[in-house]
From TrEMBL:
Protein name: CENPI protein
GO biological process: CENP-A containing chromatin assembly; mitotic sister chromatid segregation
Keywords: Centromere, Chromosome, Nucleus
Subcellular location(s) per record: Chromosome, Centromere; Nucleus
One term under GO cellular component: inner kinetochore
Amino acid sequence: MQRRQSSKTPKQPLQVHHKNQTDLSAWRKGGRIHLEKSVQNDQSPNDQKNDSKQDSLEQALSYFEKVQDRVSLKKNDVLQKHLNTVESIALQRGLPPEGFDVLLNVALSGKLADTVNTRLLKSLVPASVIPENSVVSSVSWLCVSKCSSNIQLLFLRWLITVFDFIDHKEQLHALYGFFFSFLQDEKMCPYVCHLLYLLTRKESVKPFRIRRLLDLQAKMGMQSHLQALLSLYKLFCPELVTITLPGKMKTYFKNSEGPWKAAINTVRRRNQENSPVSQLLFLGTAQPQSRKRKWNTQLIIPASSTNQNNLEEDREKNHVDLYSTNESFPVEQLQTFSQLLQNIHHLEFPSQMGSVLTNPLLLHYMNCIKDESIYLRLYYWMGQTLQEECTWCVADNNRYEEEFKDFLETVYKTECFLQEGFSSCEEFLYRSLPLWDGFCCRSQILRLVSWIPLSSFSEMKSHLYDPLAQLFFTSSLYFKCSVLESLKELLQNWLNWHVIHLDSESDSQVYSLNTTLSGLVNVVAELIHFVGWISTAALRLENNPTFLLYFILDFYETVCDMYLRYNLPLLIMPPAGVFYPALLSMDSVSLNQLCYIMYRYRTNLVAAKQNELSKKKILQFKFSSQTYQEYNQYIIAMVGCLWTSSAFQKDIHPQGLRMDDELLKKTTVQEFKTSFNIVYHPAMMGYAVLFLQQAWPDDMTFNFNLIKGKKWNWYLEYLYAQGLKGLKVFIESSINRVSQASHSKA
């Protein structure tokens, strides 16, 4: 089919820049032009049906292109027929690139009633890409005010929704000032700000535009869309925007997607199922994807506004052009780290920010340059995507759980690469966790939890701890262990962040959650208390399983070393509901783990006490006497159990093992005093049996009373040789007799 001429002004045929974009005839056949030879002469009934639909679409487009005078929908069967044809095909297969010029021109020219124009605009669902020339041509109709304000508003909403489907954006950037002039319309202002937010570059920021936005803010009040645009301006030119803006907003813009988002997803799925060639047409990518969901399409760097063929020719002619410092370097040509280093100051990020997630070179750039505008754009895109595509928050998304898992995995890997969490992920978790079943995307969600940025406790308690606790107590043992592992990684990420930023020049820039180090200490303390609480309850619910106890003690291995390893003035002892199940565990791994933890607690507390006594500087934080008291109570209980066999008499902890002798005699256990020393302890008795077999191979009575005196020291050496290093360092640091004997022997 030949390219039609618009009824408004004669135009030249649309020059298609992308090498994979085809004309309407090729689109009708569902493939590229060079595939025509492979089409069989005998068409199936479905093919004939498709051809019939496309003939109807051609007729409808021809009709709308030739409309001259204002036409009413009432009693006009021809208009009704063609309008239904456009709507039907748009919702089934999407419209070809060449159909947008015709339909946009007629919808914005005012030749038809608003009801017809509204239906036409709502039918503008792309099958592949949208030509930039069509969008620019339609924008020109806004200058002559032929269409009503409602149609203009609907057009802006459509433009925002399909922004990433427009093949090029250079001419749109040239219209920045034109769009800016529409800010004076209060009804259109939120959507104009949204569009400007997508189009803004550093060169777009001008003093007169900042003054205009400030005037509008003074007139309308603190509007989120104005704050969003001002925040972006301030990131590009902080010297021009001197006012103080809110640090973080939950949502900047109203939802602009209307009916198009769902229709686009439906068309993509249907085209994917019907024709594998449609994969090549979608957004110009020649690499087939599993399914064209929003994040999959935007994880590939799109082509720039320069013709791809010309880029290839220029690259062959002159390689020096790739490193020119006068012009921006196209990111789709960025292939090596050396290219990144040579062009690092004039890279321009793609409009589709999702493509940054899978490009290590661009992630290196983000780490090196720290351009806040890039983070702002990425957070906005990611927040929108997570909110719209969550499989348990949005109806009919359950079928795409695997793709959503892949996307969450990509986000997690990006956070690990950058070594920082995204605020948009934090907001997504806070919104979605109360609705989460604990099963869908479990591994990915818990990994994202481990990268939640520091925030105030009140916010984390209501949005993270409370919904997580409900799932924790009602889920399986494996889920409980997964949550504990995630919270341990969260604690480690916070502590690593503290170490990295400890020597920062400006503390006010580092500790933004409460502007002081005390804010960090309080939030970390609340996390540790929360883990202690759920761990105590979980051990009771699950009857003290060794598997669960391992993850709990693994968490406290990080807690016990916070003062020396991470330079954080905080130490919190495990609750009695964790300490005593570990002390009385029937598994030697748990007991050995507990011994090592108590050894590290002692090392950290001794260092803190020495630091306090040295008085070389005024300390902002000091450990409370309660921490030392609780540690001493635990040490008395451990030494009484493992060494002196006096735990039942000397344990002074309120929840400890202290019992009267009369009560112990009623248990009918003969040697109850030695029941938990390193020979008779249920976790150590297996080692004692093996030691007796090696020391007295002919004695089959297994007389544990033989392990005393010099044999006791031999038994200790035997235990150390079995890999119980935690037990070794605990005994040598906390019991003087063994420590002195070891030194004298050495």
